[in-house]
Amino acid sequence: MSNSTLKLLLKEYDKKRLEKELELDKKLELFYSEHPEVSNINDKINKTSIEISKSILQNKDYSQLQNNLEKYKKEKFLLMPVYLFFSYDQQNLFPVKKSVVSKR
Predict the structure, then answer these.
(1) The model scores a pTM over 0.70
(2) pLDDT at 23
(3) Which of 66, 68, 42, 38 is nearest to 52 (CA)?
């Protein structure tokens, strides 16, 4: 495969990836506007994550915070529609923006 062909393929791939990211962003925006409770859960997840970070830095026990975080993630998971679920990283429940390609 020539260099120019490869560049063209990569450019086309990036264009399609960007279109899909924008499509996902629009779906998320619509979903969050219709379901503010998920937005509230996101706020709880963010706040709890910050509290965990603070606890780690202060050498405090954060096990209860970790349990709360897992609970919030599960709540969010249960509220998310299927069409958005498949665009999400199931472990972290955050939008997958970049693909991971293994190098051989």
Answers:
(1) no
(2) 87
(3) 66
